[in-house]
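Q: What would this chain look like folded?
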Amino acid sequence: MIHKDIKIFLQNICKNSLLINTILEVNSFFDIIFIQEPSWSSIWSILSSSNCEGDIFVSMVNHPNWLTFVRPNTTESDYPRVIAYINIRLFSFCFSFQKDIIDHRDILLTFFFNNGELFWLMNIYSDASYSALKYLEDTEVNFCNLLIMTEDFNIRDSLWDSSFSHYSSISDNLIILADSFDLSLPVPTNQIPTRYTDNINDSNSTIDLIFIQCDSSALNNHFIHPE
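A: My prediction, written as C-alpha cells:
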C-alpha cells in the first residue's frame, strides 16, 4: 500500500515565497508537501472587459516537479491559506482535491486511488479564531479512509506541549473532531517545539500536530525538524 511508504513534509511558511521555493527544490525525496500560510503575489495583468488596465493575475509558487492543489479563490480576503504539492512521480495515483465536500480557505481535502480504494488527506490552517475547526464541527461530512489530518492548529496545550502547563478547552473539540474521523494523535520520534519565537519573553511552542488513522501503525513515525 502506498501509505506505508508515503513521505509528507509539513510547514507553515508565514507567506515567505523564497522559503517555499527552497522547500520545493530541496525536498524532492518527499511525496507530498503540505504548506500553510503561502505567499500570494501578482504574476501578470490579463485582459478585462471592465478594466482598461487589465485585471491582475494572482498566483502561488509552482514547480515543474510538483503538482499543485489549491482551492480557487475569488477575492483577496478569500485567498486559500493551505496548499498541497504532490510529487509528479505519484501522478499515476490520480491525486485530486474535493471542494464540494469541504469548501473553506483553510482546509484542503485531497484524495488518491490505490488498489481500487480511495484515501483522503487533510491539510488545515487554524487561525486565532479557530474558524477551520468550527467549520468542520458545523459541517456534516461523510467520507472514510482519512489517513491524516494536519498541521497548524495554533493551540497550545499541556497534552502535547510539555513546556506548557495549561489546558485549553478548544483541545477537547479538536480531539473529538479527530476521533470522529477515526484519527489519533501519535507521539513524534523527537520531542521538540514546532514553533520558535523571536521574542525572548515568549517561550517556544508546539502547535503543529499530526492526527493519523488509528489502525495505521505504518504512519506512526514522524519527525520534527528543528527550525
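Residues 169-180 form the longest helix (12 residues).
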